[in-house]
Amino acid sequence: MRGAEYFAALGGGRIQCQLCPRACVLLDGESGECRTRLNEGGVLTLPFYGAISSIAIDPIEKKPLRRFLPGTRTYSVGFWHCTMRCPFCQNWQIAQPVRIEGEIIAPEALVEMAVASGLPSISFTYSEPCLHIEYVKECMRLARTRGLKTVLVTNGNLLEKPARDILALTDATNVDLKSFSAATYRKILGGNLETVKKFIQIAQESGCHVEVTSLLVPGVLDRSAEIAGIADFIASISRKIPLHITPYHPAWRWDREPLTQRQRELCAAPAFDRLDHVYFL
Fold it and tell me: CA-CA distance, 216 to 36, in Å (whole number)?
């Protein structure tokens, strides 16, 4: 069992996880809400260290990244579980798994596989890679020594210290900004809007290439005023940060009909006046 970073001992065998805004307080033998970080004898441990859900070779544009290594493919690696619980999750089978059947791959072996692919980058993606930050950081360190660029596809729901640590090793990131409502993040998504906004700011400050994705979900993000707020926030950091505005399809626990093409166009319209690079699907 590997030991975790980002926790504090509270006494009496209790510990507090300091990875995401939930800040779970765990008794001995308890796991956090994410189900992947376990208090074992007063120490936070990682029962799924190196557990890989999926490996694929994707166009870099699928991450989506449109202005980083365009036209290349990337060695894509997925994990299990998530720091949030979006009811419309498009990758719910691995983000909210009933059982885990993945392979355990050591960081050194994974990076060797990526190098052998001949591709210029390795992407940590699909479900939430920052939940497995200790493993991802080690892979990123090794990847950089082998000449690979590192890509992080994330919900950004990560506290400042771990955010700064992983972004220091990241060459490019796409961050999901799922709503511009703090209440929606808290009540529906299980995340924290201000934490995600801070993550995007830190990513830009770190010199990492940053792109942002907002998924148009009926009942969650479906108003032009929210897209205007998202675009204004991004522009306050840099107008040059690309924003991807993408459609959802019903999945997991959210079965509402997608917005029509016209509704999506009206929602997206404010972004084009505020940002230099808007990609609308």
Answer: 29
The tally of CA atoms less than 13 A away on the side-chain side of residue 276 is: 9
Structure token digits, residue 9: 């001992």
CATH number of the domain to which 91 belongs: 3.20.20.70
Residues 95 and 217 in one domain: yes
Residues 6-28: pLDDT tens digits? 999 999 999 999 999 999 999 99
pLDDT at 17: 98
pLDDT tens profile 89-109: 999 999 999 989 889 999 999
Task: Identify the burial level of 246 via C-beta atoms within 10 angstroms of its C-beta, where 0-12 means exposed, 13-18 middle and 19 or more buried.
Answer: middle
Strand order in the sheet with 7-11: 7-11, 14-17, 25-26
210 and 168 fall within a common domain: yes
Low-confidence ranges of the chain (pLDDT < 70): none
Residue with tokens 């190098």: 115
Do 26 and 165 have their domain in common? no
Answer yes or no: do 214 and 101 share one domain. yes
Q: Are 178 and 155 in contact (CB under 8 A)?
A: yes
173 in the same domain as 36: no
Q: Is residue 37 domain-shared with residue 57, that is, in the same domain?
A: no
Which helix (H) or strand (E) segment holds residue 112: the answer is helix 107-116
Q: For residue 101, what pLDDT is reported?
A: 85
| Residue 209 and residue 97 share a domain | yes
